[in-house]
């Protein structure tokens, strides 16, 4: 009893909370959870921290932004636009930029954080793809991350459109064109979206509600679920001595990881704030208010929508009449290709699991070179994305480098198909070359750069053997074998009926893991039997 009387206030509060919430047991279970220490894991933290920055700055901006398309006459601090009629949305954006204390800096931080948030998620997802961390049991977490990226693209588009300036209005015109290109119901969708004939009077209000309520709520729920699953599943780790599928080598979540994460959050916040302070982004006062009869010269979307813009620019302006309806393929095809291209990377983990038939849990990551076909597919996908993104600025390429815009467009059209195929072949060969290099290092040792002359006059380079840790790292990976095709007849001589899906699965398995797709890794007996001249010992 005396012990409870002498307890500090903090201990009494902790005891009270533990008696009602059971936080002691939860803390003992999760606060000492081990996390591996590798620089690539910081990519996920950048995603989380920029999302937090977006929420904090977004809340501040909502206090001063007026999502209305009612026209007013501007009489604020920015004199070049004094007396110009504009929407309340654009007027409040100017007020935030020039009259609210710290408003312009917060706007800049919010916009830069959005750009970095999408970029970090993109790179983070690619890290998971190339290392194979999407395998069981993390397929759902991969889907949650992919869905976060997909929603972030639209969230960025909506936020980019809210100021109702001339540049964002030009982007809205593209959205209207894509909506109208939807067969049969395109006109109805456009009138519903814009509240009437473009640009309507409801678009900013509707985008505002979706931008600050609907999508952030869904994304916050996905982020929390994503983190819960990260804690629930063991954290993935790169292979090495002492690291298996059943353990995690690293530092405890508390206090080591918490201290590092806290410091890294303020570092990310500081870097974003520094960029926002010195690099202007989206200066809406330069563009002026949106008018349907005007367009901004050299209009470009934010980088993450350059892919969609490029698809529209490289697509020929074809039109066909089908069933009495005119289909504007020049807009409809890019409108469909954009989500389909993202869908390809989203469903890949399930396709690979179906091909391999692997149902085991995987907590050790793959080295990209040890999965040549998967790595080549990822690079091919990225190549198509980057080609389309570069094509989104074909007019700027032409004006800055004094080239023909038609020549650039045709080059982009060819590269959009030939580029991914070429990237696949080159990447696959590079991976196989790196595998051969690893095999040679295990068998012959590491090159030292020292040349030695043998007694009979030959000059050779001295190799020093790898240590056990490095040798293990280069040989621990599995090399799956391709599936064997089922025989045409069963054990009784009866003709077997093989489904088309099974034939396709065998064909894809041979394509991914068959002959010529991987270099046999060095085995321990090979290493022991490899002759080594006594004069070559370091």
UniProtKB/TrEMBL annotation:
Compositional bias (Basic and acidic residues) spans? 523-538
One GO molecular function term? metal ion binding
**Biological process terms in GO annotation:** respiratory electron transport chain
Region listing for Disordered, in residue ranges = 516-538
The EC code for this enzyme is 7.1.1.8
Entry superkingdom = Bacteria
**PROSITE patterns documented for this protein:** CYTB_NTER
Any coiled-coil regions, as ranges: none
Membrane-topology descriptor: Multi-pass membrane protein
The EC class name is translocase
Q: Which reaction does it catalyse?
A: a quinol + 2 Fe(III)-[cytochrome c](out) = a quinone + 2 Fe(II)-[cytochrome c](out) + 2 H(+)(out)
Whether Membrane counts among this entry's keywords is yes
Location relative to the cell: Cell membrane
InterPro entries attached to this UniProt entry: Cyt_b/b6_N, Cytb/b6-like_sf, Di-haem_cyt_TM
Cofactor (UniProt): heme
Report one GO cellular component. plasma membrane
| Matches recorded under Pfam families | Cytochrom_B_N_2
- TM regions (residue ranges): 39-65, 111-130, 142-162, 174-195, 207-232, 253-279, 327-351, 372-390, 410-431
Q: Which residues form the Cytochrome b/b6 N-terminal region profile domain?
A: 13-239
Q: What keyword terms does UniProt attach to this protein?
A: Cell membrane, Electron transport, Heme, Iron, Membrane, Metal-binding, Respiratory chain, Translocase, Transmembrane, Transmembrane helix, Transport
What this protein is called in its record is Cytochrome bc1 complex cytochrome b subunit
């Amino acid at each position: 009893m005396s012990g409870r009387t002498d307890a500090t206030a903090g201990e009494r509060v902790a005891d009270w909370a533990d008696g009602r919430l059971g936080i002691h047991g939860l803390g003992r279970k999760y606060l000492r959870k081990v996390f591996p220490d590798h620089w690539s894991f910081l990519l996920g933290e950048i995603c989380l921290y920029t999302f937090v920055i977006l929420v904090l700055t977004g809340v501040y901006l909502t206090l001063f932004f007026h999502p209305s398309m009612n026209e007013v006459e501007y009489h604020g601090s920015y004199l070049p636009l004094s007396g110009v009629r504009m929407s309340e949305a654009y007027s409040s954006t100017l007020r935030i930029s020039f009259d609210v204390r710290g408003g312009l800096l917060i706007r800049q931080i919010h916009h830069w954080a959005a750009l970095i948030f999408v970029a970090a998620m993109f790179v983070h997802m690619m890290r998971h793809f190339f290392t194979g961390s999407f395998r069981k049991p993390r397929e759902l977490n991969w889907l949650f991350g992919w869905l976060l990226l997909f929603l972030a693209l639209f969230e960025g588009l909506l936020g980019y459109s809210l100021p109702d300036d001339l540049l964002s209005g030009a982007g809205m015109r593209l959205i209207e064109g894509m909506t109208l290109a939807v067969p049969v119901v395109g006109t109805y969708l456009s009138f519903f979206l814009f509240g009437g004939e473009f640009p309507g009077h409801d678009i900013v209000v509707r985008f505002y509600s979706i931008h600050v309520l609907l999508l952030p709520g869904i994304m916050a729920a996905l982020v929390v679920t994503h983190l819960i699953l990260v804690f629930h599943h063991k954290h993935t780790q790169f292979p090495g001595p002492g690291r298996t599928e059943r353990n995690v080598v690293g530092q405890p979540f508390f206090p080591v990881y918490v201290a590092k994460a806290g410091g890294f959050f303020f570092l990310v916040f500081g870097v974003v704030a520094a960029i926002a302070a010195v690099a202007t982004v989206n200066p809406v006062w330069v563009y002026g208010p949106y008018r349907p009869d005007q367009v901004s010269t050299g209009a470009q979307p934010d980088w993450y929508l350059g892919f969609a813009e490029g698809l529209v620019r490289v697509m020929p302006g074809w039109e066909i009449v089908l069933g009495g309806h005119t289909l504007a393929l020049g807009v409809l095809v890019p409108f469909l290709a954009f989500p389909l291209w993202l869908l390809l990377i989203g469903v890949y983990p399930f396709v690979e699991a179906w091909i391999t038939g692997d149902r085991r849990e995987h907590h050790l990551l793959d080295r990209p070179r040890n999965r040549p076909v998967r790595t080549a597919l990822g690079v091919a996908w990225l190549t198509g994305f980057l080609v389309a993104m570069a094509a989104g600025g074909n007019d700027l390429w032409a004006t800055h480098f004094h080239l023909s815009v038609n020549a650039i467009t045709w080059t982009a059209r060819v590269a959009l198909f030939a580029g991914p195929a070429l990237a696949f072949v080159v990447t696959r060969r590079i991976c196989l070359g790196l595998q051969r290099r690893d095999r040679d290092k295990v068998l012959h040792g590491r090159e030292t750069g020292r040349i030695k002359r043998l007694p009979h006059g030959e000059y050779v380079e001295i190799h020093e053997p790898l240590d056990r840790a490095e040798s293990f790292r280069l040989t621990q990976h599995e090399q799956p074998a391709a599936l064997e095709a089922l025989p045409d007849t069963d054990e009784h001589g009866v003709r077997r009926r093989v489904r088309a899906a099974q034939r396709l699965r065998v064909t894809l398995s041979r394509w991914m893991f068959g002959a010529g797709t991987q270099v046999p890794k060095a085995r321990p007996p090979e290493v022991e039997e490899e002759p080594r001249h006594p004069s070559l010992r370091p």
